[in-house]
Amino acid sequence: MSHNSVFRSLIALLLVVLMPVVAFAQQPLLIPSPPQIGASSYVLMDPRSGDVIMENNSHERLPPASLTKMMTAYIVERELAEGRISMDDMVPISVNAWRTEGSRTFVREGTQVRVEDLLKGVIIQSGNDASVALAEFVAGSEAAFTDIMNQQAQLLGMTDSHFANATGLPHQEHFSTAFDLALLARAIINDYPENYGIYAEKHFTYNNIRQPNRNALLWRDPTVDGLKTGHTDEAGFCLVASAVRNDTRLIGVVMGTPSNEARSQEVQKMLNYGFRYYESAKLFSAGQQLLDTQVWGGAQNELALGVKDEVFVTIPRGSKDALESVVDIDTVIKAPVSIGDELGRIRVSLNGEVLLDEPVLALQDVPEGGLFKRLWDAIKLFFVQLFS
C-alpha cells in the first residue's frame, strides 16, 4: 500500500471517530419566557443560593392568611433547637386558644397538650387554636408572641412583613409578601431540617378527628415535601410549596389565586419550569481554601484565603462548565491577620453576567513576627514595590 493510501485511510478513520463528537456536541440550552401565573403575586426561589428564577409583584404587601403559621412554627422550632422547650412539654389550653375561630385542631379548654401535637396541628391542620396555644406557651400571650414574630422577621430580612397575630386571621396591620414568605420557607428548610418532615405529612389525628394537609401537591407530586396553604376572603387562596428534583430544591409562592385548585396548578407550573431549565450548582464548601497568598511581617509567610459558608448559584441547566471566576485580593497584606478578615473578593460570571460576588476571607490567624522578621520583611517589601 502506498504512503498516500495509508494517509487517506488514517484521515477516513479520524473522521469516523470524530464525527459522533461533532454531531452530538452539546448545544446551549434555549430557555423560554417563564409561564404566565394567575396570582396577585408570586416568586420562584432556589433556597440554597437565594436566587430568584421568576417573580411578579413579589414585594407587594398582601394579607398572608394561614401562611402566617410558618412564622409561628419557625419560632417554636427555634425554641426547640435552643432547648428552651421540648416536644414532650405539656401546654395548657386557655379559653382564649380554645375559642379562636377558623380552622381548628380541636384542642379542649382546660386540658394539656404536647408541644409536638400542637406543632403538627399548626403545620398539618392549620389549627388556629393550636397556634394561639403555642404562642401563649412560648411568650406568655399572643400579643407578646407577635413581638417576637416581628423581631424574627427583621432578622430573616423580611422587611415588608408585619404580624399582628399568630394565626393569619384578618387584621389591617398584618401583611407579608411572596418574597418574604419565600425567605421564611428558606429558613425553615435550612435552619431546622430535623423538623421539616412534618410539612410533608398528609394527615394528622388529634382528639379522634383526622384531618388532611390542605397542600394538594403532596398527593400529586412526589417531589413536593411542604410547606403551607392559606385562605381568607381577603387574601384569596395562597400556597408556599417546595420540592426537590435531581439534587436541586425550589420554593414556589403564590398569593391571591382564585381557588384551591388554582393555587396548586400555578405553583406546579412554576416548579416544572424551574426544574426543567435551571439547577442549583455548588461552587465552594464551607471553609474551602481558594488560594495561598503572601503575608508581610508575620510569624509565617503564607496565608490561606477562602470562603466562610457554602456557596451556591442557580444557573441554566448544564452550564456549570461555562462559569468563569476571578479572585481579586489585596495587593499587600500585613500581619497581624485574624480569621474572618476580608482580604478580597471572588466573582463568578456566566456569559459576562456576574452571578456571585463574595468576600474572600482569612482562614487562619497570622500574628506579627518578631522584630527582626518585621524589619526584614519591610525592607523586602520596599524593593518589591519599588520595582513593581
TrEMBL record:
Residues 278-368 form the Peptidase S11 D-Ala-D-Ala carboxypeptidase A C-terminal domain. Its EC number is 3.4.16.4. InterPro entries: Beta-lactam/transpept-like, Peniciliin-bd_prot_C_sf, Peptidase_S11, Peptidase_S11_C, Peptidase_S11_C_sf, Peptidase_S11_N. The active site is at S66, K69, S126. Substrate binds at K228. One of its GO terms (molecular function) is serine-type D-Ala-D-Ala carboxypeptidase activity. Keywords: Carboxypeptidase, Cell shape, Cell wall biogenesis/degradation, Hydrolase, Peptidoglycan synthesis, Protease, Signal. GO terms for biological process: cell wall organization; peptidoglycan biosynthetic process; proteolysis; regulation of cell shape. It catalyses: Preferential cleavage: (Ac)2-L-Lys-D-Ala-|-D-Ala. Also transpeptidation of peptidyl-alanyl moieties that are N-acyl substituents of D-alanine. SMART domains: PBP5_C (SM00936). Pathway: Cell wall biogenesis; peptidoglycan biosynthesis. Belongs to the peptidase S11 family. Removes C-terminal D-alanyl residues from sugar-peptide cell wall precursors. This is serine-type D-Ala-D-Ala carboxypeptidase. It comes from Marinobacter mobilis. The lineage of its organism: Bacteria, Pseudomonadati, Pseudomonadota, Gammaproteobacteria, Pseudomonadales.
